[in-house]
Write a structure and sequence with these properties.
- This protein has about 300 residues and is α+β, with helices and mostly antiparallel strands.
- It folds into 2 domains: about 150 residues, 60s Ribosomal Protein L30, Chain: A (2-Layer Sandwich), CATH 3.30.1330.10; about 130 residues, Phosphoribosyl-aminoimidazole Synthetase, Chain A, domain 2 (Alpha-Beta Complex), CATH 3.90.650.10.
- The protein contains 8 helices and 12 strands.
- A 6-stranded mixed sheet has the order 1-2-3-6-4-5.
- A hairpin with a 5-residue loop joins strand 2 and strand 3.
- The longest helix is centred in the first third of the chain and has 18 residues.
- The chain is globular.
- The protein starts with 7 loop residues before the first helix and ends in a 10-residue tail after the last strand.
- The model has no long low-confidence stretch (mean pLDDT about 95).
Length: about 300
């Protein structure tokens, strides 16, 4: 009875998800349910998995009311594409759920869809339908994306496959996303697919809530700890170490790879992606070791 009076803000998102999903029944075709960047399902193709992702952007939380609607649409779909990238997959079909105020201009919705099209076209994503609903005259508008993808079984990246001693890398630079990058980032589909096709990536996720939140999640999923050098974290111009750790909405890749492959990876990466940095920030370590003990990052509740 004591637990029934607890508030969501008292236990946080991760514990809430753990509680509500622990007794869910999963079919034999489910390879990964809640807890990874996407759900992973067996498909009719014996060589591939189907990926499922749902994500929402909320006015006042993920964008401000004055944000141009095309940027809202672009961000909404790109966030989901970034999660497909984190699994090493290819995005395929999207459905769009809109919660709108009745006095919202039709031109706003048209522009929002222009942004969705801008995000979908580089990856040949088909927008195949969706839902519109009334959020009331003074309600909060939102966009919800349901996205499917596919990935070859042998190339699928799970958060749970990391092992102690493997090196940790991040793409790009972190922090200061609020300066505009959170509305205009490029999902790392190309980079993730190149990584999985050329190297054995042991565990991977995208950085949406900040390294301080997401790295412990990846380590915990892999039953590991971690050890990183915060001075090596690649920072966006003007970003402090704390901002690089905690700002969130970077949408870069965090992944683990065997340490013996590090030199080959760094040399090959420089040739393939000369304008995008790749930085080794530390390693996975035995469970129970967290150096440093990271706090912060985006908290949903």
């Amino acid at each position: 009875m004591a637990n029934s009076s607890k508030k969501i803000k008292e236990i946080g998102e991760d514990l809430l998800i753990k509680r509500i999903t622990k007794n869910l029944t999963l079919g034999k075709d489910v390879m990964a349910g809640a807890g990874d960047d996407c759900a992973v399902i067996k498909s009719n193709d014996p060589q591939s998995y189907m990926l499922l992702k749902i994500d929402s952007v909320i006015e006042g939380i993920h964008y401000v009311k004055s944000t141009h609607p095309s940027a809202v649409g672009y961000k909404a779909l790109s966030r989901a594409i970034s999660d497909i990238a984190a699994m090493g997959g290819t995005p395929k079909h999207a459905m769009i759920g809109l919660s709108l105020r009745p006095n919202c201009n039709v031109s706003y919705v048209t522009s929002l869809y222009n942004g969705l099209s801008k995000a979908s076209s580089p990856y040949n994503i088909s927008i195949v339908g969706g839902e519109t609903t009334n959020c009331s005259k003074n309600g909060t508008q939102s966009v919800t994306i349901s996205l499917t993808g596919e990935v070859r079984k042998d190339l699928c990246c799970f958060r749970s496959k990391g092992r102690s001693g493997q090196s940790l890398f991040v793409t790009g630079k972190l922090g200061k996303s609020i300066n505009g990058r959170h509305l205009s980032f490029t999902p790392r589909i190309e980079e993730a697919q190149w990584l999985t096709r050329n190297f054995k990536i042991r565990a991977m996720m995208d950085l949406s809530d900040g390294l301080a939140s997401d790295l412990p999640r990846l380590a915990k999923s892999s039953n590991c700890g971690y050890s990183i050098d915060t001075n090596k974290i690649p920072r966006a111009r003007g970003a402090s170490i704390d901002e690089a750790l905690c700002d969130g909405e970077d949408y870069e890749l965090l992944f683990a790879i065997s340490s013996k492959d590090c030199n080959k990876l760094k040399a090959s990466w420089r040739k393939k992606f000369p304008s995008l940095t790749l930085t080794r920030i530390g390693k996975l370590s035995p469970k129970g070791t967290e150096d440093p003990d990271l706090e912060g990052g985006w908290q949903h509740f």
